[in-house]
Each structure stands twice: as structure tokens, then as C-alpha cells.
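B., you asked whether I could sanity-check this one before it goes into the benchmark set. Here's the sequence:
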Amino acid sequence: MSDSVFHQGELYVQQSTGEEYFAMQNRSIVRDSIVGGALHFVLSQSFFFVSSKDKEGMLWASVLSGNPGFLDIQDSRNLLLNVDFLNSNPDDIFWKNILNNSSIGLLFIELASRRRFRVNGNITKPDKLWKIEIEQAYPNCPKYIQKRKSISPDALAEPASNDMKKWIAEADTVFVASSDSDNNLDVSHRGGNPGFISWAAEKRITNT
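And here's what the prediction gave me:
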């Protein structure tokens, strides 16, 4: 990660929209560690979203979930991930991707309280546990988060393939993986009223 909190794309948007002053004010919240209430929030979550990049450079957003203890802390700058406690799919492409590219972005989001916290860094496996080395950690405001209660995964029904476009078009929440030119990954929440995501082409959607 570069010395700047913001990558070149973010700096360009800030300059073109006249938001440089406010961005500079907000950069103080970005740290390289998790402490206090933020740490308790992160460790209390039963799932989080994570981004990864495959060999072809394609970006993926995955969700990892597990029983208590699947995520722990080594110290304020390092999280530990225990795959023995995972509930999510062990064949998710995330596990293949991180063997070739250690950069990841994490989003901890509690939909019931509309709280979220983001962590960007690298994942390695020095021993039997995966270690997530924190480079950036910061909170986000609750704007556009649709309030929900957690339910059992068994109660979810996957949409039929021929309904996928309709299902996406009616969504009020999506999660997006992204990367800058220096291979620093991120994963973001995007929300709005149903219809805020629309189809622009066969393989392209837009955020309106």
C-alpha cells in the first residue's frame, strides 16, 4: 500500500468533484490497526464480505461465514482466520485466488444495526491459520444500508437462472469488488431503492 491513504483514482474523483478538502479531513479515520469498539464489532460478526483477484485479473466478491472463533485476533494489526470453523463453501473461488494473489479487501457489515467497517490488506498462511495483515482499517457511515434481520441460510432460495436478470434488477443491495492500479483490493456495499441497478448490456450493469 502506498504512503497516501487514497489511490490515484480516488484522488482524481476528489479533484474533479471539488471534494479534496473533505477527503483530507476524513483521511485521519483510516488506520493500520483495529482497536477498541471496532475490534469488538469485527470479532462479533458471523460473516463478512471479501474481495479477491484471479489469475486473469478478474475481481470476485465472496462471503465467508463461520461459527464463533472462525475469526480471531493475533494483535491489533493482524487477524486470524480458522477454516476449521467455516460454514461457507470451502470450494469458493476465494481460496484459489489467494494462492496467487494475497491482496484482499474485507467488509464487516451488520445489517440489523446498519453498521459497517472495512479492512484492506494481505492474507498469508504462515502456519495452520490464515493471517490477515491489516494495511487500512476504517468505519463507514450507514447511508444506503437496507436494514435487515439475519435468517438461516437454509431459508434462502437461489433464483432460477432464467430469473437472474430480474432478481438483480429488483435488488436493493449489492457488493462490489474493486482494485487500484497497484493491486490493492477493496470490497464495497452499494444500496438503494429497487431499480438502482439496471442492465446496460448483456454483460454490463449500471448504478443509477
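One thing to flag: DSSP finds five helices and eleven strands in the chain. Otherwise nothing jumped out at me.
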